[in-house]
Amino acid sequence: CDWSSDVCASELCPTVGARVGQWGGVLTWRALTQFYRLGRVLLATHGELVDLLAEACQRPTRLMRRGVDTDLVSPEKREDRVPGAGGEPPAVILGYVGRLTPEKNVRQLAEIEGELHRRGRSRDRFVIVGTGSEESWLRERMRRAEFRGVLRGEELARAYAGMDLFLFPSQTDTFGNVVLEAQASGVPAVVPRGGGPRSIILPGETGLVADSVAEFCDAIESLRDDSDRRVAMGRAARQLALPRTWEGSFQEVNRAYALCAGAAPVDSAESS
Fold first, then answer.
1. Which residues of 18-49 are buried (b: 16+ CB within 10 A; e: fewer)?
2. Is 220 helix (H, G, I), strand (E, B) or coil?
3. Is the dihedral of CA 135, 139, 140, 143 positive or negative?
4. How do residues 194-251 score in pLDDT, each as one tens digit?
5. pLDDT in tens, 139-181
6. Is residue 150 within 8 Å of 250, Cβ to Cβ?
7. How far is CA 267 from CA 51, 182, 191, 211, 272, in A?
């Protein structure tokens, strides 16, 4: 193949690139499974990964959920907002917490803001917590976004509680602890169908699922215009997060260690 030719560039190269990417993924997965098979017991952050690893590696595989400090992050940290000019209700706050880096797909936040503006939702505001290589790109393109940098402790808890909806466009996270923290703060989350964050929410009860910019905006509008539903989802999200303590997570890990230290055969396959 002459990689400089027009035919190759427009027709063959994308095909070859797709095949290389496909085979690269297959080989990477094979290498990973060989590595994971070295373990006597495997731990994974959500159910889909548990099933996948148990089948591929033929090892006992256990769930290792993340935890959240529900005393620190709480709806009680929410502060009252002042109505807008003319008695208008306060603007809806759309929040994001995490690294501002390419793998988090954060550029989609700017696309969501642009689409909301085209739909006449120019009063909605974004609060973005975190830093990273994409921050300057986002600052240049987002009209109504407040960038708060890195927050911790009480400052972070107040930022979570001050949000009305939490947006998490990343499709690469195997869990997404910030989604759990948002729910513990009583904030419904909108997350993609793929990846770990989908396993944290109950779609239609504690949050919504969306992939494209249009779907994210549809989800935002459906909850923005129905404050009762949004508040009910926030309460349900808080209830879902309450049992997800770090103590419970450590107990799950301890059970896996106990299984590993026991007499379970190395070649047995078991999942739960």
1. eeeeeeeeeeeeeeebeeebebbbbbbbbeeb
2. helix
3. positive
4. 778 888 899 999 999 999 999 999 999 999 889 899 999 999 999 999 998 888 888 8
5. 999 999 999 999 999 999 999 999 999 999 998 887 889 999 9
6. no
7. 16, 40, 37, 39, 16
List of residues 6+ apart from 129 with CB closer than 8 A: 95, 96, 97, 98, 148, 149, 150, 151, 156, 159
Q: Distance between CA atoms of 54 and 59, rounded to whole angstroms? A: 5
pTM higher than 0.85, yes or no? no
Tokens 């959500």, residue located: 46
List the structure tokens of 93: 């706050």
Listed in order, strand segments (DSSP E) in 64-163 are 93-97, 125-129, 145-149
CA dist list (Å): 198 to 83, 93, 180, 189, 231: 34, 22, 11, 10, 20
Q: Which two tokens stand for residue 67?
A: 């935890």
pLDDT digit string, tens, across residues 143-152: 999 999 999 9
